[in-house]
Amino acid sequence: MAGSAGPSGSAAAARRALLERWQATLSARRLYGSTSIAGSSPPSVFVGSARYPEVFAGPMLPPVYGDTSLLDSPERWGGMPLERIVGFRLGLVRGMRAVRADRPAGRYVEGLQDVAMSSSPADSELEFERPPGGAGLDGLGPPTGPSAPVRSARLSGASPLRSAERAFYDRDATALESMLEMYRDGAGVQRIQQCLSVGMLGRGRRMVPTRWSITATDSAISGFLAGQAALNPLVDSCRVFRHSGLGNSYAVVLYPRRWSFELVEAWETGGGLAFGSDYEDPRRPCRSPSTAGAFFAARLAVTEYLAGKGLQAGALVLRRISPEYSVPVGVWQVREGVRAAMRGAYEAAGGFGEALFVASLATGVPAGSWAAHGRTALALRQGVMDDYLGCAA
Description:
Elements: H1 9-29, E1 36-41, E2 45-47, E3 54-61, H2 82-90, E4 93-100, H3 107-116, E5 122-128, E6 147-155, H4 162-169, H5 175-184, H6 189-197, H7 210-229, E7 238-245, E8 248-255, E9 260-269, E10 272-280, H8 293-309, E11 314-321, H9 332-343, E12 347-349, H10 352-363, H11 367-372, H12 376-382
Parallel strand pairs: 4-6, 9-11
Antiparallel strand pairs: 1-5, 2-3, 3-4, 5-6, 7-8, 7-12, 8-11, 9-10
Helix pairs in contact: 5-6, 5-7, 6-7, 7-8, 8-9
């Protein structure tokens, strides 16, 4: 369950009401009714996955000029209500033009790359084949704004972000090396992902569909940080971190073991709670998690904390998804939710069992249910980890 709250009549009703309000706003303002749009891209680009390697790609922009950066900056959305964030997504018009992902070349692709590496909102103008339409909330994926095929485009990026420009011109570096270099230079995950998506990074360059590039970026950076954390001393006690927002409750348990990681999710169905989980340790890396991109997004947030503290730990992330999360907005929400938890004060626990109990109080799910649907507690009880130090369940 990577991002939705499961089937729910109330959630569907909430989505319909939100979409109706948004459509009424568009109608009242007479936005997107023409075959052209001019405005400042946050900057933001989108690459689809249908018909890969021939994909539909284009910029996303609102019909306004100025500082629109907030519209595509998940790192800045903490504490905002769900409806406002959905409004950001619905308010970006997406241009589409078919391009070859395995041959990212031509003026149109170069324009998208200029937008992706822009250090500030990029003024753009699009002419469409027809008026944009199709904004929607299906409850399965992130909200999407209106879209239309692009007849012509004027894409003028602002001055480039220095780390992105270096990565673009360095054709000897691998994509991973370029991503890590941008990350060390302070580029946000969203920016790195977009540069990867439009074919700017690595040696054998190709465009990467946006959905895939998000997971690839989270996976690559967190995998590197996890390897670094494995060289650090162990955390000295069990620690519990908590955060709630956008209808999601998170609890993160760190415990003094060699690096391992598990994400367990719980969501409501008509018959009670359903669960999903994925686990990894150095001997069993998780490459295709059932929790999809949420696994790598949560892993990135945890490994960032460990890297910043110079520590190593086993980590268990618990995510309770409530019906209030009626509109899945993307796995960035998992990354930022766990980051928010790790920035807060932690509660020290005397052992893993106590830590799991504290985490259960934070999420409203019994400790026994979390333990039964994951592998961490069982691994500790069975003594599978060879550096077992007595923090028993």
